[in-house]
Structures are given as C-alpha cells and as structure tokens.
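JOB MANIFEST
job_type = single_chain_structure
chain_count = 1
residues = 305
[input]
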Amino acid sequence: MYLCTKIRNHAISALKMNHRIVALTCVMISLLASCGDDEQRKELDEGNAVYYWRTDLRLDSTERAFLHLYNINKVYCRYFDVVMNDEGEPMPNATITFSDTLPEGVEMIPTVYITIDCLQKPHQGLAARLVKRIRQMNETNDISGVREIQIDHDYTARNMKIYYQFLEEVRQAWGQALSTTIRLHQLSMEAPPVDYGALMLYNTGDPQKFMERNPILDHRDVAPYLRHLDDYPLPLAAAYPAFSWLRIINGVELEHKAEAEEVTLVKRMVEQERRDLSRSIITYHLDKDNINRYKPETYEEIYHH
C-alpha cells in the first residue's frame, strides 16, 4: 500500500509539473504570436492622411491650412479611373490634371479606382500599363519621391483571385509599396497581397434604405463586421467620411451627410476591437466644403492617435 501511495504521489507531482510546462508553453506561444502580430502591424507608420478625389489638383487656402493644422503627411490622390470601353477592354477615364502641387513634406500616393466590371476576367498587361501610366504622369508633372500606389476596387468572392493576381502583377511592375482599399464585407475574405489595406468606414449602408439608416455611415451597419477585425492579418489604416451625397429621387433632391457623432462613435468601436486602427487615419476627402462640415474638435478627435 505504501509503495502504491508513493507511486501515486510521484505521478500526481509529475502530472502537475507537466500541466505547468504545458501552461507555460501555451503562454509563450501566445506571447510570440502576439509579438508577431504587433510587429506586422507596426509596419504601417503612424500618421494622418486624406483622400483627394477631384479631377484637378488645385488647393485653396482653407485646404492648405487643413493639411498643416492636422499634420497631414500623406495625400491619396486619385490619378484616374479604369473603366470598360465599348470593345470590352479596360481603359483610363477622368484623368486628373495638376494645376497645383502638394505642400513640401506631404507625400503623394497615386490612387487608381477600378470599376467592378473591369476585373471579372483577367486582362493581360493591364497591371503593367497602369503602372506605366502612373510613372508617365509623375514624370510629366514633375512629381518626384512617389514610393507607393493604392488600388481601389470593390472585389467580391467571385473575382477575388483575379484581383489578387492583378495586384501581384502591379507589385511586380511597380517594385515599391502597394496598398488597396478594404471594404467591411471583405474582412471575412483572404487578405490581398499588399503591404496594407485602407479600411473604408463609409458607404456602409444600402442606399435604398435611406429612410431607416444613413447609407454613408451608421454604426449598426458596421457592428456585424467588428468580429473580423482583430484576426485580420493585414495591417490596416482607417478611412472615415467627411462628405455629403446628393441624390435625386422622383425629382426630389435628397442629401445624405456624414454625421460627426456617428464618425467618432464608429472610431471608438473599431479601435476597441483593434487598437492599431488608431495609428494611421485617413479622411475622405479633401475639399473646402467637407472641411467646413465638421467643427475643429471633431477633426481633432478623428485624427487622434
């Protein structure tokens, strides 16, 4: 009996030791994984940015003051759209002109919007032509120091592989930093092959249900996607709305506005799920009317890190 008791005590001690080792190992693995995520997410530098979505780069005094006041160090400037022509081939459209330049120290990030129908099938050479056009526009307009481009495309599960292959080809042709927009519904998909994504926290609702919710931004439309944020492997910048949207329905003009209270509420919601979403902030888009839409304290809260 003594021998059995002794053996049993040794077994219990060994089992407790094994449990401690397993627990310690799990903690170490968790810490290492967390460090890995933090390191990946730190690749996206802290900073303030804004989209520029007009067809002529021309800044007035209010817009220049805005860039200075809120320490904007990046402007995602829409260079052109890519649309389908009558022959069923992608072509550039609504190309920007450059009547002005960005202030010194503000980085230009050429951004290209590609319509959904352009990437329902692969188009050989499209990525190389897109990159070549951006480089030519930079050279023609004496725009130097461009290190990154961004592609804006509302991809779906159906054309995701085609789009991701396109991004790989853009990266190969460009050879520098590449980002893409990420819509909320895309958070449940595989992450694209880019350096980081710009999470679009606007145009979140159904325009047909405007009587129920603001289609530009409503926290109730954002809430179902929050569960995907923490596990999403790609570094993310957060893009918030500062614009209005005018529609004509049955001959009646209807204006949707991005509400300041809703923007700041959503900002708190997403940062509670993923803290690094406070590191890099973008607003859409730079325009005198949009600047005057919010009080200075609202912009201070939006751009607060």
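[summary]
The helical segments are 2-41, 61-69, 126-140, 160-174, 219-222, 260-273, 288-291, 296-302.
The mean pLDDT is 89.
exit_status = 0
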